[in-house]
Specification:
Elements lengths: L7 H4 L11 H15 L2 E13 L5 E6 L4 E6 L16 E11 L4 E11 L2 H18 L16 E6 L4 H13 L4 E6 L7 H18 L7 E6 L13 H9 L4 E5 L7 H5 L2 E2 L3 H51 L1 H44 L1 H22 L1 H6 L4 E4 L17 E5 L4 E5 L3
Parallel strand pairs: 3-5, 6-7, 6-8, 8-9, 9-10
Antiparallel strand pairs: 1-2, 1-4, 2-3, 4-5, 11-12, 12-13
Helix pairs in contact: 4-8, 5-6, 9-10
Amino acid sequence: MAKTQWDFGELFPAEATRKVFSVAELTGQIRQLLEKHIGQVWVSGEVTNLRAQSSGHIYFTLKDANAQVACVLFRGENVPHRELIADGQKILVQGGLTVYEVRGQYQIIVRAVELQGTGALQVQFEKLKQKLAAEGLFAPERKRPLPRYPQRIGLVTSPTGAAIRDVLHVIQRRNPSLEIILIPCRVQGDGAAKEIAGAIRLLNEFNLQTLTGGLQLILITRGGGSLEDLWAFNEEIVARAIFESDLPVVSAVGHEIDFTISDFVADVRAATPSAAAEIITEDIFSSGRFLSQCSERMGQLFRQRLADKQFLLEHQIDRLGRAHPRRKFQTWRQQLDDLQDDLSRCLKQRTRHSRVVLQNLSERLHRLRPSLSLKLRRDRLRQMERRLNALGPEQVLGRGYSITMDAVSGKVLRDAAKIKAGQKLKTRLKTGEIISEAKK
């Protein structure tokens, strides 16, 4: 029977001949065995229990579903991407298998690290981004403005994805006359990047071959997803196709937080497919809204201008009226009336003054002839008596008039409207009085 590598008879001999190891000796022999028979290894797993010491050394555990192994990355090791190592990150490490004798724990001394999964893609993304940026593919000065009023655009996307529905919905609402040339292609998976680049080149060829009414721009788009889902738009072949395009390119890949290489190379980056459609149709949409408001605005301006002209016309008419000869003639007539009034007033004042002078002279004359004055006064007195008698109530009653009074208060009644039905009345005649009652 063949002898196996591990002969327990040799490890555990009879008591008389057995050799007893100290812990340090045993651990040292195990370390030598591991370093000699296993040595350098490549191991993949998920990082956990990451611990970065102030000394610069990094300690972590590499695990899978069934086991785990301790790892240490010393500060002096020149390992790229060591700053990207994090808990939960899947990595591939290369290093020497050994034993940390103080703890009796086997571990890997890491000398190389490669990121796997999303981390690896992120590293690849950063490398390509730096490369293309150094070549000037992202330079702002090479970015071209989009046409303000595009009539026909090229669309590169999946014909069954959500992105094309969003784009068509926005364009139908904002500019339904915009023509779209769709180049269907895959936007995810192996070969998708090649199809996207080919679609961009095909649209440029179509634009050159079209004699009239060519394309004004190209929109490449897809909906959101993980980094792996969007990776086709991070391929160098797509970046080169966008850079070489004669037509301006709008890139709308993923959601607002997603950035791809195509976003950096494109002339315009939109946060979402819907946002890209709004950017493309913004000028024509704004112009349409402006034109729809023009009629109302023109009406407002016309009414305002008419009101201004009406005010100016009325002002000029008023000025003309003030300057018209008839107005001056009317003014002269008014002045003539004023002068006539002044003359009449002066004559009246002069007459009153003359009468006063005459009266004064007459009084002086009477004072100089008392008999004549007395006779004049007597004549005047008799004349006044006759007038007084003629105006007296007895004379008025004698001519057939009567005086009606309230029977109670004796107040003379002058207004029939103020007499109430049933009121007692007393009527005075030339001879006697009559007591009566108002019926109506």
